[in-house]
Amino acid sequence: MIRRHRFEPARLVLGLALLLVAVIHLARALDDDVSVPVPALLALPGVGLLLAAAVAMVTVAARHNRASRRCGRDEPAVAGGEGAERVSPPR
Which stretches does the entry tag as region Disordered (predicted)? Predict the structure, then answer.
C-alpha cells in the first residue's frame, strides 16, 4: 500500500522550472531556428530555485498558521517572538 504524504508545492515548482530548462535545451539541439540566449539558459535554474524557495516559505507560513489555529490560539505565533512555540504538524 502507498503511504500518504504531504503535497509540497515547492517541489512541483522546481520540477516544472527544471523541465522548462530541459525542453529549451532539447529545442535548441533539434532546431537551429530556436534562439534563446545562453545567459538566459544559465539563469533559469537559479530563478527556479529562488521561486521554489519563495513557495516553500509561503507553504511553511500557511501550515504554521493552520496548525496554530488548530491548537486553539486565535493569533498565530510570531516566529522567534515572545511566547512563540514550535507546533508540530499532525501525522
Answer: 65-91
Torsion of CA 16, 20, 21, 22, to 10 degrees: 100
For the chain, what are the domain ranges? 9-70
pLDDT of residue 89: 61
| Residues belonging to the chain | 91
User: Collapsing DSSP states into helix, strand and coil, what is residue 59?
Assistant: helix
Query: What CA–CA distances, in Å, run from 73 to 58, 64, 70, 76, 84?
Result: 20, 12, 7, 7, 11
pLDDT tens across 31-52, in order? 878 888 888 888 999 999 999 9
